[in-house]
């Protein structure tokens, strides 16, 4: 019995020792999930646009589709940014000239349209060079009776050179002595444009300044055109000479009832026109086309104006004048239009 108990004890001891040497299975735990941190959103403040820039953006959008002003005050014309030009929060345009000079211009000192883009008074832009002071071409000055001694190049009416020079001759209309009768159109085939003669003109009232800077332009070859620069008062600013409407008129010097242009010139026609323009012009009568009234005779220099601006635009200009808005003539920018030169003493 003792032997059996001893054997059991020894066996139990051996089994216990072996069990102690077998490692307990370790538990395999799944890896802890990795936390993905989402960065906090970055706050981007909305830029504040100057009210002055917003106002100018609206003005430009209403007048010129080819011009765009961005929120930083930079101006683009047909997708190309003007260098050295900025519209400021002060409501003015700022130019940097090629020599580094800074120039500030008020909005009324610039013009903007789809055809010419941005045009500041007195300055010109070259895409390769930048902004510079505009040089105004000079011309000889002849009085009305001696107009044939001064000749103007035909091309200068179509590149703006003559107009810029003409505008340096601004003359004030005297308060209380300016004719502000509305513009109208003569019924019938001639359709002349003038101020309404059914309304009596006040004694001494002036309708137009015929500038003492007449001349001739030969166009086409051998055909002389009488150049008649004149100024009209702006109906809204009649006493501000800088707001005058500057127009280049053409007087036909030949017999308009001949079959060909430039035929039948007579000294009497020239002398008579000069007398009327100098002494008997209360109005200048505008022909709304490029043919001499009631003849079908085309005046080539005036026809070129219609071809340059296009018939639709020219008709729009003439229609606006006929409706009482002579400021439409500014859109000619000095390109010549036909006048019927007659005695308008009683007009």
What does it look like?
With 347 residues, the protein is an alpha+beta fold. It has two domains: 51-133, no CATH class; 147-340, no CATH class. The chain is 21% helix and 20% strand. The strands form six sheets. Strands 13, 14, 15, 16, 17 and 18 form a six-stranded mixed beta sheet that branches. The longest helix has 20 residues, at 2-21.
Task: Chart the SSEs and their pairings.
Elements: H1 2-21, H2 51-63, E1 67-69, E2 75-77, E3 80-81, E4 85-87, E5 93-96, E6 102-105, E7 110-113, E8 117-120, E9 123-126, E10 130-133, H3 161-166, E11 183-185, E12 193-195, E13 209-210, E14 215-218, E15 224-232, E16 245-252, H4 267-279, E17 285-286, H5 300-309, H6 311-322, E18 337-340
Parallel strand pairs: 16-18
Antiparallel strand pairs: 1-2, 2-3, 4-5, 5-6, 7-8, 9-10, 11-12, 13-15, 14-15, 15-16, 17-18
Helix pairs in contact: 5-6
- Overall pLDDT confidence: 88
The percent range for helix content is: 10-25%
Which blocks of ≥5 consecutive residues have pLDDT under 50? 1-27
Helix count equals 6
Instruction: Tell the overall outline.
Output: elongated
Query: In angstroms, what separates the terminal alpha carbons?
Result: 161 Å
Give the biggest sheet.
6 strands, mixed
Give the total of beta strands: 18
The whole-angstrom Rg is 41 Å
Secondary structural class? alpha+beta
Instruction: Spell out the helices and strands N to C.
Output: HHEEEEEEEEEEHEEEEEEHEHHE
Q: How much beta, percentage-wise?
A: 15-25%
User: Number of folding domains?
Assistant: 2
Using brief descriptors, characterize the structure shown.
single chain, 347 residues, alpha+beta, three-stranded antiparallel beta sheet, elongated, disordered N terminus
